[in-house]
Write a structure and sequence with these properties.
62% helix; 8 helices; mainly alpha; 175 residues
Amino acid sequence: MKNEELTDIGQQVAKRGRPKGSGGSYVGDARKYIRHALSTMQLAPIDIADIEQVKKRVDWYLVACLKEGITPTVSGLCCSLGIDRKTLYRWEQGIYRENTHQALIVKYKRLLEELWETQMVEGQIHPIAGIFLGKNHFGYADKQDIIVTPNNPLGEARDPEEVRQRYLDSVVVDE
């Protein structure tokens, strides 16, 4: 390929690569995100049984995101606490540490859900990515309830002999 063709392809890819108005360069954003993820990952461990330490760490995470201009995420929250998403889910559902952690985690998950929803409405998240996040982190689902009601054309006959007789009565015999 000629250099002109490569340049044209590069421009086409660049045009499709990022949503309009997303600002910043990909390389600059990537560096910011990596720096933030590393700082979160390298935090000293906390006693996750201590609700006050959990609350302080979650607050630290949210303030760090605010300072760095990064949207807080469920995965980032988990990373800052040193837990996985399943543990956070168990806390939220009250399966584990119901008396201590559930109310706090529900509160913070609702905050993250509000941020996600606002960004979806404002067009700051690609719809497919937004749908994925909603289904995987906030319990949204595509579902349709269908109620099937049996329709018995012969009515509510309970006795087999009565059904037989109704059938025989409904048969037309050509003579």
